[in-house]
Specification:
single chain, alpha+beta, 434 Repressor (Amino-terminal Domain), Umud Fragment, subunit A, 8-stranded antiparallel beta sheet, elongated, disordered N terminus, disordered C terminus
Length: 330
C-alpha cells in the first residue's frame, strides 16, 4: 500500500484521478461557516419567544440509555443476547436483561438493579459511575459521610476518584517572593488558585498508596499520631525494619490488619509473633499476635494529615454508630 493511500485512508481523503492531487472529505461540522450578507432590520425574521424553563423536557436515565443504544445501532435482542453471555461468564443470572425488561428500563420510571446496570454499561461501553449519577447516586458523596458514622474505629479508607468531571482546587501560581526555607501560610503564598479535573491527579502518584483513618477512640500512637488522623500507607513496605532508627520520630509506623479491626503502631517481630508497640505516653499496653493467623502488615505509614487542636465541641458531634434498621426505614 502506497504512502498516499495510507494517508487518504487514515484521514478520510478522497483520491482524485491525479496521482498527487487528493482533497480531504470533511463533514459539515468541520466546514467554517461562510459570511452571509448583512440583512437590513426590515428583512430580519421575527424573533421567537424564549422557551420557558418549565417546558424543557428533562431526559430520564432510561431515555439516555435508549439514546445511547440507538446511536450504537444495537437492537434489544442484541442486548439480551450480550447480557446472556455476561450472566453466563459471571455465573449470576441477575446480569441477564430480557427485551421486555429493557423496554421497561428505557420507557418507564423503572430503576434497574446494579447487575443490569453493569451489563448495560459493559455492552454500551459507557462509564458505570456516570450512569449511577444519572440515577442520583454520586459515588464521591460517600466521602462526606465517612466522618459521621463509626468515627471511633481505626480502618482503611478509599482514595479512589469516581468521575472524571470532578474538580479539585489546586495552586496554579506561587507568589515569586515565597521561600521554601521559611514556614509560611499557604493561603498567602499562592498567587492564583485554579480547578483541574480530579482524575488528572491519579497520574501524579509514582505508585498507588492505601489510606487509613485513625479512630477517635484509638490512642495507640498518641501524641505522635492523634485520633482522627488520615494516613498514607505504602503497601510495598511491609517488612518490619529492625534497629534502623535513632529516635522515635524515625522509627517506622505500620498499619496492621487484625481479625477484629486495624491497628497503627510500631512493630517488632519475635519469631512468628508480631508485637504492636504503642507510644509510651498513650498508656496502651503492648499487644502480641500471630503473624500467620491473627495479623497482617498492610504497609508502612509514609504520610499523615492530622489536627493539632481537637475540633470545637460546640459543633454537633458526628454519630458514632450506624443508624438502626428502624431509622433507615422511616
Amino acid at each position: 500500500m502506497s504512502l498516499q493511500l495510507l494517508v487518504s485512508t487514515a484521514f478520510g481523503c478522497e483520491k482524485s484521478n491525479s496521482a498527487v492531487d487528493f482533497r480531504p472529505m470533511f463533514s459539515k461540522l468541520n466546514v467554517p461557516s461562510r459570511a452571509k450578507p448583512e440583512l437590513q432590520p426590515s428583512e430580519l425574521p421575527p424573533r421567537s419567544a424564549p422557551t420557558p424553563a418549565s417546558n424543557v423536557t428533562k431526559v430520564t436515565p432510561g431515555q439516555y440509555l435508549k439514546a445511547v443504544r440507538e446511536r450504537l445501532q444495537i437492537g434489544m435482542r442484541d442486548v439480551q443476547d450480550a447480557s446472556m453471555v455476561i450472566a453466563s461468564e459471571e455465573g449470576n443470572e441477575n446480569f441477564y436483561i430480557s427485551a421486555a425488561r429493557l423496554t421497561q428500563i428505557e420507557n418507564e420510571e423503572s430503576v434497574p438493579s446494579f447487575f443490569k446496570l453493569f451489563s448495560l454499561c459493559s455492552i454500551y461501553g459507557v462509564d458505570l459511575n456516570d450512569i449511577l449519577s444519572r440515577y442520583g447516586v454520586n459515588a464521591n458523596r460517600t466521602r462526606s459521610y465517612r466522618t459521621r458514622f463509626l468515627p471511633d474505629i481505626t480502618r482503611l479508607t478509599s482514595a479512589e476518584i469516581y468521575g472524571f468531571e470532578d474538580k479539585v482546587l489546586v495552586p496554579v501560581r506561587i507568589d515569586p517572593t515565597f521561600r521554601f526555607e521559611t514556614t509560611q501560610l499557604v493561603n498567602r503564598v499562592v498567587a492564583m488558585w485554579g480547578e483541574i479535573p480530579a482524575a488528572f491527579l491519579l497520574s501524579c502518584n509514582p505508585r498507588r498508596h492505601a489510606y487509613g483513618y485513625v479512630g477517635l477512640a484509638d490512642r495507640t500512637m498518641f501524641p505522635l499520631l492523634r485520633p482522627g488522623s488520615l494516613l498514607m500507607i505504602d503497601p510495598e513496605r511491609r517488612r518490619v525494619a529492625q534497629d534502623t532508627w535513632k529516635n522515635e520520630l524515625e522509627r517506622p509506623i505500620y498499619f496492621v490488619e487484625l481479625r477484629n479491626g486495624y491497628r497503627c503502631a510500631w512493630c517488632q517481630v519475635e519469631g512468628s509473633r508480631l508485637l504492636l508497640i504503642p507510644h509510651p505516653v498513650s498508656n496502651v499496653p503492648v499487644q502480641s499476635f500471630s503473624l500467620t493467623t491473627e495479623a497482617e502488615i498492610l504497609g508502612q505509614v509514609v504520610g499523615v494529615a492530622m489536627r493539632l487542636v481537637p475540633p470545637d465541641k460546640s459543633s454537633p458531634e458526628p454519630g458514632s454508630k450506624l443508624p438502626m434498621p428502624t431509622e433507615t426505614g422511616k
